[in-house]
Write a structure and sequence with these properties.
Elements lengths: L1 H17 L13 H5 L4 H20 L4 H16 L2 H13 L5 H9 L5 H19 L3 H25 L19 H21 L4 H26 L4 H21 L5
């Protein structure tokens, strides 16, 4: 029973870290819980995806799909506090130009947003908006359930592949410690299960879910190579960037598979 309570506590830590949703107050806290909670990051994605899918379904009953999609994205941003969007903007500010790794890390640490970051923010939100609005309502809702866990799973996989490169204190440093194989296995299982469940329950949607997961995988490979070449590893901001690119890649894969459905 104690072990179960600890796992529930780790889930609450992950929810608290990545969202603005209320969680039970902790009477004590161990920084090691942050790294242990990494296995449940895709589960947080499923929670965010469920909220967004429910919002899109309700809004889609009375509003045109482009309007419903835009409002759904706004709700998702409110739930997460633009956590990942901020990472996308900071990463593109740092890596968009041609600067040494040390300077790139300094730029990434700066809270101000530059031209690359602003353009990346517009691109990221705009692409997700257009792609989501291009799908039938039911498929868009199911895609939201699957893409959020998958994209966060891709970010966790980068934590396992690359080294953490930021020195000194940072919000992401405790999360970056000691990601073992079991944590990675649980995270990947939770990341893939929603898409697999949808494919099994609705076999006609299997090509779309498969294409979406392939898209996340390609985004993961691209980000891993890019981050390693430019800064030698990852930071918390680059994980947010990878998550956002994973969401876009999933939706793009689903859209490309639409003629097969």
């Amino acid at each position: 029973m104690k072990a179960v309570r600890h796992q529930l506590r780790l889930i609450a830590v992950a929810v608290q870290y990545f969202t603005r949703l209320p969680v039970p107050e902790f009477t004590e806290f161990d920084p090691r819980w942050l790294s242990q909670s990494a296995r449940y990051f895709p589960l947080v994605g499923l929670l965010v995806g469920a909220i967004c899918a429910a919002a899109l379904w309700l809004l889609g009953q009375c509003l045109p799909m482009p309007v419903a999609s835009g409002l759904t994205l706004a709700i998702g941003i409110m739930v997460t506090g633009a956590f990942h969007e901020d990472g996308l903007a900071d990463t593109l500010d740092a890596l968009g130009g041609s600067v040494p790794p040390e300077r790139a890390l300094e730029i990434m640490h700066d809270s101000r947003i530059g031209s690359y970051g602003a353009a990346a923010m517009v691109f990221g939100i705009g692409m997700r908006w257009v792609l989501l609005a291009s799908l039938p309502l039911s498929l868009a809702c199911l895609s939201l359930l699957a893409l959020h866990p998958a994209a966060r799973g891709g970010a966790v996989a980068l934590m396992a592949r690359l080294r953490y490169v930021r020195s000194g204190a940072s919000k992401a440093k405790p999360v970056a410690q000691d990601l073992d194989r079991f944590d990675l296995f649980v995270a990947m299982l939770l990341a893939l299960l929603p898409a697999l469940f949808i494919a099994v329950c609705w076999p006609a949607l299997a090509p779309a879910m498969t294409a979406g997961l392939i898209g996340v995988g390609l985004a993961h490979l691209f980000c891993g190579r890019w981050f390693r070449q430019r800064i030698g590893g990852y930071t918390g901001d680059t994980l947010g960037c990878a998550e956002q690119l994973g969401e876009i890649a999933f939706l793009l894969g689903v859209l490309l598979a639409l003629p097969l459905l």
